[in-house]
From TrEMBL:
Pfam families: CBS (PF00571), CNNM (PF01595), CorC_HlyC (PF03471). GO terms for molecular function: flavin adenine dinucleotide binding. It is found in: Cell membrane. This is Magnesium and cobalt efflux protein CorC. GO terms for cellular component: plasma membrane. Belongs to the UPF0053 family. Residues 2-200 form the CNNM transmembrane domain. PROSITE patterns: CBS, CNNM.
Amino acid sequence: MESIPLSVQSLILVTLLALSGFFSMAETSMMAANRYRLRSAAGQGSRGARLALALLDQTDKLLGIILLCNNLVNAAAATLVSVITIQLFGNEEWVLGVSTLGVTFLILVFSEITPKVIGANHANRLACVVSYPLTGLLKGLYFVVWFVNLFVAGLLGLLRLRDAGSGNQDLSTDELRTMVLESGAFIPPKHRSILVNLFELEDITVEDVMTPRHQIEAVDIAEPMEIIQGHLATCYHTRLPVFDGEMNAVIGVLHVRRLLAHSFENRLSVPDIRELLARPYFIPASTPVYSQLQFFQENRERLGLVVDEYGELLGLLTLEDIIEELIGKFTTGAPDASERLRWGEDGSVIADGSQPLRALNRKLGLNLPVDGPKTLNGLVLEHLQDIPESGLSVRIAGVPIEVMQAEDRRIKTVRIFRPQTGK
């Protein structure tokens, strides 16, 4: 070693530190790389991404080749520093101690921390690059890595630690939802909103998205024919539930367009309406929305009547209701009170007590609880456990609510105040 010029030894030392930095950067970038992005790049023809995925599928061998080379390089660098120090300053103990501290500092700064920070910040790009030399080293030193891993496998066996499968990175629904929410500029806001709503379909029931009973546009076949005709002439929907005297006595669903074609040929009568009725389709209130979407598809239905466990009519659900839960309002129909909800200049908004809580949360950016009552009226009544008087104020989930009008054992209108943040 003394025959080698000092300048050459210094150059070798710099090379060893650079190699150590490369292996440190390679280890961090490979472990921090996003496998889903690598799969996407591989699908687009990136050979480096394919090699990176192949290495990640055998993590034990990947880490084996990286750590084997890194430790060999670090040991060689430490030895070379000792040799250079002895040549320059002699072999005093304090000199060797200082040289040890010096090489530790060099390795720490230039071969560990800095390369690993770079590898972590540019993991996906660097993984595709470093996969080429790592694949070549693994093929060339495969026997050595295999021999070392025999002892590693034996030690893991003694500790009763099993390999859970390095390539298995299945994501839960919550993890996928978090990835979508944190996608930033990669997914447009509207698309991101649709995906998040899709994840929530299994957590909500038809009762959460149905049209409540008192808002259902229906035909009472027991009324005079003139009233029925006027109702049909001004209706907003093409399908209307038909009941006989009482809302729970639904006898069928009327397709208004079929009735229109029939009215051109004959004078409209109650028996004619009865003949044109389709059989009503009933849905239990606890049915998940996602399951109901499948049922609509399998049964070729577009409208269902939601009933509780006693068979009482609670509301009406259409295929459009489910689609709008995903992508927002898009159809033209009856005026929707939730579309007019806007915060006023005084930081408040007046809302009907029958407003669904999910619509309020969506339109006003609130976080009112939706796991109990489905309407604002029900939420306030459950919170107070009494029929309130006008002027009473409550705070629910941090939202101040003032009862403006209450009659007939229900709350008709309330004033909602914008929650104060940071309090």
